[in-house]
Amino acid sequence: MSNLPDATRQGVEPLDRMEPAEVVQPSRWRSIWDADVTWSFRHSPVAVVAAVVTLAMILSAIFAPWIATTNPFDPASLNLMNGFSRPGVPNAFTGESFWLGTDDQGRDVWSTILYGLRISLFVGFMAVLFALVLGVLLGLLAGYVGGWVETIIMRVADVQLTFPSILVALLIFGVARGVIPIEYRDQMAIWVLIVAIGLSDWVQFARVVRGATLVEKNKEYVQAARLIGRKPGAIMLKHILPNVLSPVLVIATISLALAIIAEATLSFLGVGAPPTQPSLGTLIRIGQDFLFSGEWWILFFPALTLLALALSVNLLGDWLRDALNPRLR
Amino acid sequence: MLAYIIRRVFQSVIVLLAVGLVAFSMFRFVGDPIENLLGQERTVQDVERLREALGLNDPFAVQYARFLGRAVTGDFGISYRQSRPVSQIIAERAPATLELAFVSGVLALTVGIGLGVFTAIRRDGWAANIIMSVSLIGVSLPTFLIGILLIYLFGVQLRWLPTFGRGDVVDLGWWTTGFLTSSGLKSLILPSITLGLFQMTLIMRLVRSEMLEVLRQDYIRFARARGLSAKSVNFRHALKNTMVPVITVTGLQLGAIIAFAIITETVFQWPGVGLLFINAVQFVDIPVMAAYLMLISVMFVMINLLVDILYVWVDPRLRIDGRHT
Predict the structure, then answer these.
(1) Which residue numbers delimit the ABC transmembrane type-1 domain (chain A) (predicted)?
(2) What is the DSSP letter of B40?
(3) Nearest CB to B296; choose among A6, A167, A303
(4) Which of A166, B146, B156, B214 has the highest CB neighbour number within 10 Å of its CB?
(5) Alpha-carbon distances of A178 from A17, B168, B169, rounded to whole Å
(6) In terms of pLDDT, which residue wins out, A94 or A235?
């Protein structure tokens, strides 16, 4: 995975060169566009399956407290005697049965996965949101204002792009740990993770939005808005932004897959979500310790969940890119 | 050409200065260096003396210049955690990472190009189709899961290969190598596959699509019509012309291999620089983090520079364009 940023960067590339959509009446164009996308969605079995899997995961993450059989964070509900139960086999001491087994402390793997999914998805969504807001604003600013503002923003973007995003995230995480007092580190870990992944990922958004803004800002509607005296901020947010959103949507989807994997990788490396709030990556890290002694299920099921999630979001992003790319129609 | 190179070198230096500023700011403002160097038992005089000795009372620019001056000579200060010079620690760890990266790179390049050519020539064969489908899975698997999978398969189940550490290494004085012992070589296999797999699939898919593009060209058809052997057409005419994008991607991926060694080294407990960096992040060992950042950026900037120069050298069309502009 973690290697994925570069692959996607390549995949995303054509967007930079995307031609602006033909000028028709906005409202009608919008409805045709919607219909087009729904049509291509219905005719792509891969996209449908990916969407169903993704939706199922998001729903089970949201409703985790109701679906999970136990609350893995509540020590009172745990019974150490249940430790290392095999999936589906009744425990030798207590006779209780867990369909995905339990870990060393008797936590039900099914429940930890649901709660882990919650944290993974939360971090993923928030990180992408952070990167999106930052990247889109900086991209609009660079494209619309130009001059030294553009030079500085795009230079920083270029330099950051030379480094793999996982490295950037690690550095930000390390620095944040140094700044935050020890007693708050675990509490803040999730937010630090979000900021670290978000900051490592804004460049894609900024580059694409800047490119699209450069095209849009010379169009008549922007000239007109300027003529009637609208302020630059309003022109950027109310006029240009809605017209550059479709590539942003594609990048956001692909970024979500990358962010989920980045979070899992950081947590796996031991610098992400703390053991008190385990994400899927943390669960895999914990499970790795038991691989050699034969308790494969502690690692296997969280890993499978992560894989299914990342793969479906990725496939959705791929499909969305093709569906929204006018050159492929 | 020369003007182009000079401009690129100049840009690289600016980038390095900027990264240096980031590294220095980390060093100077994250945590208190005095706090980290002096223990609990200290007097106000001690603090003041050390502050003066370390030059922490000087203006920011002077301190930054001094930091850069030291960094150029390889002096990155003393690790907070191990109380030894950072340069010494990194020098000990570097051979492990470089050997791993080297083997992975060679693996990715040879197997990647080989499979790429194969899948392009036998485009519709069943073997090529299987390889392409498997490579799709390879791209979506996170690196650490690939590592765990290999450990489980070849280490736990089959017990063929060691799953952690470098095995026996031979100390050459300034370099420790795992190439000279059988356990060292065996230990290299799983980590280098883990590290190189993604780059391998990337190069393979790139070579394949470029080859398919080139094989459609008229000069290939002409070469075939002239009665040249398939081997000669495929390798001397077609493959040669796919090399420009391959060089770019490989060059950029070389940096990625070194950076992603962090993950592979953690999975396999490989005693390299990446593991050192992860431990530094966990324990907020700022001098080690700053040194790693500087080293990696020098490496990345150098690779980018070389790729750009190589690019112009390989593709004569760019040379002519360069002269005009």
Answers:
(1) 117-317
(2) S
(3) A167
(4) A166
(5) 41, 36, 35
(6) A235
The domain spanning residue B188 has which CATH number? 1.10.3720.10
This prediction's pTM: 0.79
pLDDT > 90 in chain B, percent: 1
User: Which residues in chain A have Cβ-Cβ distances shorter than 8 Å to B262?
Assistant: 166-167, 170, 269
Across A143-147, A286-290, B247-251, least confident range:
B247-251
DSSP state of A274: -
Range of the domain at B158: 98-284
Does B251 map to a domain? yes
Q: Is the Cβ pair A271, B266 closer than 8 Å?
A: no
pLDDT band at A7 (very low <50, low <70, confident <90, very high): very low
d(CA B85, CA A255): 39
Cβ-contact B50, B38 below 8 angstroms: yes
ipTM over 0.85? The verdict is: no
The domain spanning residue A286 has which CATH number? 1.10.3720.10
> Is A11 a domain residue?
no
Interface residues of B toward A, Cβ cutoff 8 Å, are 15, 18-19, 26, 30-31, 139-145, 148, 151-152, 156, 198-199, 202, 252-253, 255-256, 259-260, 262-263, 266, 277-278, 280-282, 284, 286, 289, 293, 296-297, 300-301, 304
User: What are the backbone dihedrals phi and psi of residue B187, each rounded to the nearest 5 degrees, phi first?
Assistant: -65, -25
Q: How many independent structural domains does chain A possess?
A: 1
